[in-house]
Amino acid sequence: MPTVLLIEDDPAVREGLCLGLRRHGHDVEPAADGERGLRLLAARRPDLVLLDLMLPGIDGFEVCRRIRATGPIPIIMLTARGDDIDVVGGLEAGADDYVVKPVQPRVLDARIKAVLRRGATTGHDRERHGALTIDRAACEVTKNGEPVRLTPTELRLLLELSRVPGRVLSRQQLLELVWDHDYLGDSRLVDACVQRLRAKLEDQPAAPVYVRTVRGFGYRFGPL
């Protein structure tokens, strides 16, 4: 039973999400503000965090950054509207996905399961790509022998891109492969994750070697 830390200040929304997620088999730890949420995070080490952006005290963006600094715990942000500033800010702070409230529990359950699947891979190869070593079986990445700490979403993105070196994958293809979005999804998820991945992999993120942009099409891994 996966443990979900729900940080949401609205009592009605918090209670409704708790009930719905528990019916779908999740163990939910609720918190009404960011400070309480961070304390529960340290005490329980949940499998995933559901994080409202508009919180009293420490806002959701800062909570997201602090959670991300502790390790690769998946984060889905909750936003009351699909506001560009909220979404982009949350993704840049380290969120893996987002949902717009109100959201049906079955939809949220599907998104949670998709995020939790991202650390899994069926490959068994240990690959070298220049200074990078990708161990698909162990879900580990090293650069010059040093471990690279990636979130499950960042890892899955790297695994999908490196599976077909030199081949261009569109943003929509990556949404389907990495985020399990089989509809016309939000390409900002892809772009923000690529930005974070480059910051961890590249010596010069502005001149990437591993994850390259093919303007107007998408992204590819490594040189052609």
From TrEMBL:
Keywords: DNA-binding, Phosphoprotein, Transcription, Transcription regulation, Two-component regulatory system
Record-linked SUPFAM superfamilies: CheY-like (SSF52172)
Origin: domain of life: Bacteria
Gene3D superfamilies noted in UniProt: 3.40.50.2300, 6.10.250.690, Winged helix-like DNA-binding domain superfamily/Winged helix DNA-binding domain (1.10.10.10)
Ranges annotated as DNA-binding: 124-223
UniProt keyword annotation of Chloroplast present: no
All residue ranges annotated as the Response regulatory domain in the record: 3-116
MF annotations from Gene Ontology: DNA binding
Domain OmpR/PhoB-type: residue ranges: 124-223
Residue numbers of 4-aspartylphosphate PTMs: D52
Keyword Lipid metabolism listed: no
Record-linked Pfam families: Response_reg, Trans_reg_C
Name of this chain's protein: DNA-binding response regulator
